[in-house]
Structure prediction request, 229 residues.
Amino acid sequence: MKKKAVVLLSGGLDSTTCLGMALRAGFEPVCLSIDYGQRHSIELERAKVVAKAHGVTDHRVVKLDLRAIGGSALTADIAVPKHDEVSQVSANIPPTYVPARNTIFLGLALGLAEVVGATDIFIGVNAVDYSGYPDCRPEFVRAFEQLATLATKAGVEGARFTIHAPLSGMTKADIVRTGAAAGVDYSLTHSCYDPSPEGLACGRCDSCLLRRKGFEEAQVPDPTRYVGR
Prediction:
């Protein structure tokens, strides 16, 4: 039997690449998507499509309303920043940062890992071409890995959890190339923070600009459907 791994799957470019890498590494993925009240909830539909396309037989969606906390352009009535060029993306932490999101997501993934008997968790955080979120940094991932062993029954009984963040040191172009080599169909994914009612990408939010930059630099055709294009 293949070794199981929990893969956090948002339906975006990074998490879908992680899923492809987990499959390529020989893991049996148990995918976990979080419906947290995000304004771009279309990504959950994409996650279901992505999981099915990759032959995932265990895909779970947890509903958790972070709008009750707010504090982010993704979970409150705060405008999503828009730019004309990727060079305009701020080095400061933007309002699209969702307080403690990856801590919460990894906590849920850890609980699921205990239930299904997995000690490997994949998360698509990136610390090169990204929006400066503090919970995407390698230091955070390593700290959570230590926490996982301390905070669980499995850890107390001798299990050692591994938090895989294989995209951490990659540029978006590296990620696109890696995913393409693993057979990822990026036309199934969604990354935009502020899509149109029809689900088209705005083309101007940080996520859209970084995604487009990745395809351009990787010299891979961009299958994203943008507003007005």
In short: The first strand starts at residue 4 and ends at 8. The chain has a mean pLDDT of 94.
